[in-house]
């Protein structure tokens, strides 16, 4: 049965200009609108903003990220020509607005994010979180671990985020994956960073990271090999595990994403990033987040637009979930 | 009866940080939320965004004004210490979102704005429009004229906006008050511009303007006299007529409002503007609009914040409508 | 005969600093200066600004594009080291200034642009238009069709621009190539988009587009194949037809061209774009335009500089028109 | 005895351009340079940066404030023509660099700031703190209270900062003066806010504030009275008490200080602010701070420059400490 | 005889939108256009850009000032409602474009500026120079001194610009008025600075300055007295001498003029500045310059717009030259 | 012997947040700190800022480059994961602050830079200069030539910088390598430009350049070949000669480096640039400079961050000097 025509989609572009559309991601309906229009019907995907940045170690401001990504998502349209997905029609998507959490108490904030994720996901909906800073990864992983067991984290970032503490603080935007690993949330054979670059504290950062369960594909490998080769390696690593996708927007080069807190030269282009994410098609993606968009440092919404497109590709992956890889994106996908 | 505690107010600041609050003006409830929470109860004030800027003759971009003003209004709090008003509690205010109108057909847009204003105002609600460009003044005036008869326009602007045509076009952001006067919407003895400055086309612009029903207080008079004196003159001119307040944000100096389309040096400070508007206390304000906020030219939201505060003072005037002038603002008000 | 020394070239860089040079494209002479200095001599290339953006569906501001591109073109020098062309010496180029058209009446504007193009081209001059928005493509195509018959459009853009209407409007920046195709202006076997990406409305956008005469090379193909391969495919498609080159600056990635109205992530680098355009060498280029530069969103002129370089490569193509491909650009050109 | 020639002053402007000078406030010497050059000699004034902004409730970023103020202070010269002070020569001033405190633990940060202030002030030096956010006021007041007893706070700000808690947090940038009052640090008859404006939570904010020891001069009074009258009222209130001057840069209008976290329209001009501060001449100023400069929102250093000039006037007050009011600033000072 | 209808005025606003107008000051005709249209007719006012900034001691970039001021002048209209002047019709004004001078050799540049001024002024035309930095004042004063004898300089600036040398260099933007005084170009009883503020090097700067022929009105006096009082003092000082008006845009507060090289807090508003300049009405203004506009630091053209309005008031003064003071500006003018 | 633990490294990141660290490159110690802590110990690398931009022909502002690069270098950490180098531990690095030179006298400035370089290098330290404009290359080359003889210049730039004069000036940012060649400082068989692009004055620019000793790898070659192939060609050319590395930040594409004075489209990504520099591993690098960072045109420090990373790679090359190529960077290095 194709129920797509029943689903509540984005605002009608033929009746209202996009710039006059609702302040939701992709002009999609709010959660309460969906619930009113389709009482009892399943909501496959929920989008949530978490404007929290108290875990940031350098340039703050990601608390304004969710609103900025939504504002930058107004040009998204319903058909993904790169993958053939129709992410707004093939599934019911709803924008749940923002979760307000305490900026003065990191522990309280982490608990609130986790409780809220548990609740939003209780009906089986997949959750796409718009950050906020990377501290959010920990409560998000705790929540998906609860329902899916050991998680294969696919972490797109310039940084490892497996550091131990920062000024004595165990829960910051630089530590979520170490905490998650220590808490036993991760499938240690299946986690992976992509896009890593820039100086680190020492060689032990890399060896620690491996022990914590991660394989590294550095950003430089996009220079020396190809997106297709990286996607193949990524798919091999992730396998059939439940995958949580965590996209720190600073995986992009500062040229493409100035609006972030700890930029590092030598990053990915948005074209590389989008095609890498498309490479997840057919895998078991159980949740996702886009973090570290700091609008005060953005220009002309270029960071916000990149983040919005990342969100769109994630929705597309879920829309394509049941089908075999097809369309142009399939061109570089190896059978798994 | 004081029903204020029953009214649906802004988001609870103690439970959620302001930056995580809803994307409405002043974190106020949406129209549908009010209607659901208080079925049948009166809504005294409606706030509407009209993202239209096809009537702009120079720098466009006011189509993004409503979203920008709302984003810049998140710090507004419920008590006006300058006037003693509690604009969110003394009346039910609702944010009606944006009206999408056709950017490619000015006539169609004007008709849609008017029809929508008629509809929103049908229950007696007062309407505060967030533009969008000044073309909106005409349909807004047509609507208030319908229910209130001849209108005393209080027009705060750097420009007269009583020009005839521009490149042959009769309906643009430079012509609404001439059209309104020609259509018989205005009380010719009670209209007024405040803040006028910059070069005009010729001396006949001024004489024409007078014939169309307007008195002029130039921005320079703030230098040579005082806000109090200007307020007194303003109140004398407006008298007891139904007043429509039209605030073009370019009444402010470019230093205070860079984010606009036709800036002119030598304008008002935001302090002068807010105190001028407070001077309307006790008059019969039947509608209002804030126009010409063009975010692409704004910096750090300073234009948006000024516009948000103007909106707050307008809501405060309505909240104080029944009471005699009091509080600090009363200090410079003469009895009328 | 080499008449280059007779031609009126750009301002003398040894006598005046570039920042003090005239406000023309590449410091080139104005049309009236050329006419006065070389009465009766042919003018091979005319550059015209058309500051019109009333066909824009999202972020406006391209009306300030021509002045911005010219300001950003002051560093252009006379010899193209990539192709061996001397575009200012091999042909007489003149800057015709801006054509003022009515921002309030799209139909009138389109007619005026066409009439003016016909007139400027009457003496056989090739016309390079600096937009302005993409609505301009239609009158420009009408004009070249008049003298050259069915046109092979090479359209570099993130978007198809073959949509039907927008809010009921048939003539906007999203529809010129559908209109052109419907009007019979195009060689349906030889049109092509390059750089397409981002979500579209539906799969039918793509099938419609094909019927209208276009082949698509998506931006992603730059990731999976190479500029050389794309150029080869492009040259095969265009063949010997009269080619009109339409460059929407949003074909570039937002990182390279923030100053535009409808940016989409995943675009081209300026290096890819310039080398693609160089690949046209030897083809029959009958006219060109560079559109959608919106300076209010630009930073440090990076969008303007990219547009200026695109213009320079177009002039270089014309300068090389008679000669066989040579120089570095020839390295990846197949014989046609 | 005039020891000024012995003091270590700013970098020699005749030998090195200002833009090449050291990265200290006003090109002044570092603490260690002074200690090396003048071992054992008294250091009358110490300048300290405290890059801490974890107490911010809205736009963060004041952690980059100290570096920004210093960069914006490079044009300061040694003679204050407005007051006749020679603040770099009349006293030994040293820049102590930045105090790094924990961004993830407000309590730890407050304790560190206090301990450090105690230490820096142990030799009798006056301390000028460059913030950082307003949370810093509490540890700074604790320190001056220790040596001076009950303090008369002169607080220049758009906001009262006497709120109780925010999201349950007692120590934030909105609460320092309530905490200080509760802790008995303040002279309840001699504290004062100047520049207050914008909406508050309720009328009780104002009554609470009075109980906590503060008198309010709203920003609007600059419109209705004069700097001279305000200075007179200020001097009357402060009397002969030990005064701590706390300048939140948002006391300035957003036009003059966009680079801050919670801007409110209707503020002071920098001219009003500087002249108000000059009005403190001859009073017993025991310490001072300049807070809430958030560079990510600044433009062309205008906020930083205003803050640097405020710092300069504070240094000038101390330089003039012993002398009777004189010079131009004295023109509007009444005898106290 | 009223020859105004014969004069060549600005581009026809009814035929072409302002943003499509020519890149001249106020859309006025170029010198060569005037000469062609009105051969032999007098040109009363010439406007010249001098993009030179090699005399700058801090933030450079004023070399891009002339183009920026012109771009910011497109909204100027022909009738000055503040003074009743019609500056484009009452006199023939022509834009002479830019004079390119050597950025690597200050002496050569100064000589070229002087020679060019002599030449442009040879026919009796008054010259308005758009800088460029303040170094230009010296050659400009040499030129007017040649034809008018001892000059009364009215210098609007934050700085004295009577310093002696800077890093040993005698000719910089900080020294022109000392050099001019030393060269005997000035009427020592009639020169004046207005707007001075910020720290200086020492008290001797002020005493030296007086010896060099200048009286000082500090910016603070706008706070303590009034524009009218300042204008009266200014007119008394200038008397009937030939006046050269030198406006450094940093006389404005950084809020109003961020786009400049050595900003100082506490400056004038553009309203104060424009009204001060209007106060020159009826005096013998023999030349003028507007300098130190550095566009890289400007935002939304606010500095450029202020400079353009200053230029407009200067043209208006010349247009009113023969007539008695009248209109609104006359309100505060004392008889002289 | 491994003395790394004795060396004075950067500020302790575990004790102080990076944003609170010292204003030096990479939070490294100042020269005087090193000298005090390790009297007599060798200082292997000295970093010097030279804020000079009077040789700039277009957009000035590189005088603020050193401070900007340092501010943008605060996130650098001690271990280079791309090459395995520990540049802060393997050698003693010290930040020497800025050298103030005369902005009004290019010859004096060049002499001062050379004298200072000679002095700083007298103890055998390698010098990394942060510009400042490219004029600095000449005195820097003179200094290294003195101790190392004929130099192989590796010049990364969009421009040749082998022009002869500009407006008659022999010493500007466009001429250093011609002067150096003429002075006999260069090994004519071993110099090389990488990243060249954009129009030049004529074909003779290229032939002259070859005579002066340079081989050219155009930026386009990164499109058509690979970093590895370019590195191989580069190493072949440089051989075992003493290499001076001169990085003009405009070698990067304007998207990656907007903050520079003469940007050209079609440049390198920062990833390409960093990997090219890594390709120098094992060669005899005797000195280096990073020039033309003009902060007024930068956004969110992206240009500054790129420059800081370039500096980090240079320090890493020196740290690896003795060892054989290893680690990831070795992947594309051919044996030499």
Q: What keyword list fits this structure?
A:
homohexamer, 336 residues, alpha/beta, Arginase, Chain A, eight-stranded parallel beta sheet, 10 helices, 30% helix, disordered C terminus
What structural class results from the helix and strand content of chain A? alpha/beta
What is the architecture of chain A at the second tier of CATH? 3-Layer(aba) Sandwich
Largest sheet of chain A: 8 strands, parallel
CATH class of chain A: Alpha Beta
Order of helices and strands of chain A: HEHEHEHEHEHEHHEHEH
- Mean pLDDT of chain A comes to 94
Write a structural description.
The structure is a homohexamer of 336-residue chains. Chain A is an alpha/beta fold. Chain A has a single domain (4-332), classed as Arginase, Chain A. Chain A has ten helices and eight strands. Chain A has helices at residues 31-37, 65-71, 106-121, 137-148, 176-182, 203-211, 221-224, 227-238, 270-278, 302-319; strands at 45-50, 93-98, 126-131, 152-156, 191-196, 214-218, 242-248, 284-291. Chain A has an eight-stranded parallel sheet with strand order 2-1-3-8-7-4-5-6, with helices on both faces. In chain A, helix 9 links the parallel strand 7 (242-248) and strand 8 (284-291). Chain A is globular and about 55 Å long. The interface between C and E is medium-sized, with 22 and 22 residues.
